[in-house]
Amino acid sequence: MKLIVLSDTHGNITPILREINKIGNVDLLIHLGDYSKDVDKLREMLRVDIVNVRGNCDFYDYNTKEEEIIKVKGKKILLTHGHRYNVKFGVNNLYYRSKELGVDIALFGHSHVPMLLEHDSILFFNPGSPTYPRGGNGRSYGILDIGDEVKPIICKFNP
Questions:
Q1: What is the CATH number of the domain that holds 110?
Q2: pLDDT along the chain (159 residues), means of 10
Q3: Structure pTM?
Q4: Domain that holds residue 8
Q5: Of 71, 89, 95, 116, whose CB is crowded by the most CB atoms within 10 A?
């Protein structure tokens, strides 16, 4: 199962739309917050299921959860923007939350910096930002290919 993982689009989905259209068969798109209105636009333009959580800049969106757990191919996945866990300063708080919930994968954004880390049998995955990258990184998004194994990929691109 192929999942596209996005975060921090902040009102500009044009660059990522081109990338998603190049990919082809996508089973699920996950948006980790910071611009819920972008999710509405993506739903209109793409024919793919979308699951999303709200971020710290989505203060106007009271209908979207701040945290969600989904199951894909037997893997329990936590979706969060990350601001509640201070992920700009590390994943320690997110690690404890992930252990508490018993998840296999923790997906988060907020820092605009891509990250892939496996610790204590938990995969921590931040796709970065396709709109406003930070830390000297280019525009990026993530792909999670979940089959017998979980294959996470950070995809960097030029708009």
A1: 3.60.21.10
A2: 96 90 91 93 91 94 94 97 97 98 98 97 97 92 96 91
A3: 0.96
A4: 2-157
A5: 95
